[in-house]
Amino acid sequence: MAEVSYVKASRVFSGNPPVRAVDELSLDVADGEFLVLVGPSGSGKSTALRMLAGLEDVDEGAIQIGGKDVTNVPPKGRDIAMVFQSYALYPHMTVAENMGFALKLRGVAKTEIKAKVEEAAKMLDLTKYLERKPKALSGGQRQRVAMGRAIVREPSVFLMDEPLSNLDAKLRVETRANIAALQQRLGTTTIYVTHDQVEAMTMGHRVAVLKDGLLQQCDTPRALYDRPANAFVAGFIGSPAMNLKTVPITSEGAKLDGVTVPLSRSALDAAGGLDEVTFGIRPEALGIVPSGEEGMEMTVELVEELGADALVHGAVKIGDSSQRFVVRVDGRTPPTLGQHVKVAVRDHTEIHLFHPETGERLEA
Amino acid sequence: MRRFLERHWYAYAMVLPVVVVIAVLVLYPLAQGVFFTFTNINEANIANPVLDRPASYEGVGFKNYLNVLSGDASYGAFWSTLVRTLIWTFGCVFFHYTIGLGLALLLNRQVKGRTLYRVLLILPWAVPAFISAFAWKYMFNAQYGIINQLLRAVGLPDPVWLGQSDWALFAVIVVNVWLGTPFMMVALLGGLQSIPGDLYEAAEVDGATPWQRFRHVTLPGLRSVSSTVVLLGIIWTFNMFPVIYLIAGPNPNTRILVTYAFERFFSGASRDYAVASTYGVLILSVLLVFATVYRRALRKQGEVW
Prior knowledge:
- Chain B: Pfam families: BPD_transp_1.
- Chain B: Belongs to the binding-protein-dependent transport system permease family.
- The complex is a heterodimer.
- By secondary structure, chain A is an alpha+beta fold.
- Chain A is built from 9 helices and 20 strands.
- In chain A, a hairpin with a 2-residue loop joins β17 and β18.
- In chain A, α2 packs across α3, α2 packs parallel to α4 and α3 packs across α4.
- At the A-B interface, β6 and α2 of A face α8 and α9 of B.
């Protein structure tokens, strides 16, 4: 059990110009917390995790585990366990040997290793497979062995590098819940890397969003969703993605096709002096209204029926250009292709404004 | 049966040429060789169309085998030659493997000029064996060879390397190690590169020291490559004729089974084809026994091969 801190930690890969894969990352993870690092590929999330593991050098700044500076400590001395994307199971060892390997290296007595391995195997439903080689296991079983190998160690921090990305969709959802429950039960600090924002939102106590090596925002899933700090986070978190459009702004509000969406005083103040803002609204904050009412004229181009609801993609004219919007509607009565519908903002509190150039959130 | 042929005649027709070629080039000579071991064939009684002389050799049963296996010196002292062959084989393969593995490990990391080192280290293999054999023969020359000149320069004794002593065996082993290491290195380097890097990282996180990573990740990862190249190395070295014969000639101190078979066949008063063939068959059986035992041992380790 331990807290983890990144203190302005950077990883710079030599090159011309040098690549700052992780750029002055500062992050505090509390004891027992489940923190998810999420971002698109190349955002530096895996590098950040590997820096914590000691597999990647820390070029600037420091990393602390349990209050101790481990910046220059080899992985061996950090009391961590890692689950790899490829699982990295030793192919010539049985499941039991794989799980007990770290203990064996540490010189733990055989009977104790056996007891611990069996306990972990029971927790992960692997008891039947202890004598098998990884080759003879399914993807999901291998994933559990990789988890088991980490659990048996009883480390102070778990590191997981996209552990679910090699599983099929159904198993992924199932395993996601299992990992979250397991972490809850063990209460071990966990840093989890994924590119899948759904995984991040469902598993993490807090989620840190990275882009180009820079930390964009670190907050609870709810807060990330409700108050994204910038346009990138707004577009990255949530599925389908938030509608983000650059629109002209006047003293009354944001001008969309035929409608002016009124904005709060504080938002207008924050946008003071700007002609345009990046206007963000989630698909579920939009709705289709009867043709008589005020709203944006939208031509339906695609309807994705998801069962409970449907996603309507369509084009809206803003100024001279045609912009695509996504609207979440009731699944039972979706509009048909090519139909012209009126779309209006359903919930005015769910409007997000961002600076058109910097992408920073406007308003307090 | 007819339906079988009707359905598959095309496949058999395609395979037939290869079967014929193998039968003519491999099976027929092999059968003839085995047949000769039961006769007293030699230069004096073989059919000679030039002299218009018909063959006059006759069957002698197992006499050749009995003579050879008695270990009699006039039949090449089979048992002591076998022991020397085994020393030669395992000595060479041991150093091939260990030196090759060492070099492969060095080359498998990010070093500057890695490609250059690789080319340089493969060179001994690319040079025709007889050229390097002659080069080494001159280097081992007792008086003018560079090796003895260096030894004299630092005040060490300078043995007659290729004379009638065990130094000759030592010398040919050195040359063959030099020649055979590149193959092992290339094969093991390929094996090393097929070991996924995250296994090493996992082992590092698990707390393994560099030696433990070598022992628990590298060696098991190389096992299938190793078992193949070691078996090949043993078979090739067991029958490595050119190195020994070109460097040491018909020196009894470097005599192995295959060089003796050659001597018996091509030199001596009456080129004794029968005994030479007997040696050939015995070499084949030793290697067959060895390969079988070796494969069985591997299978016991759970190796799929």
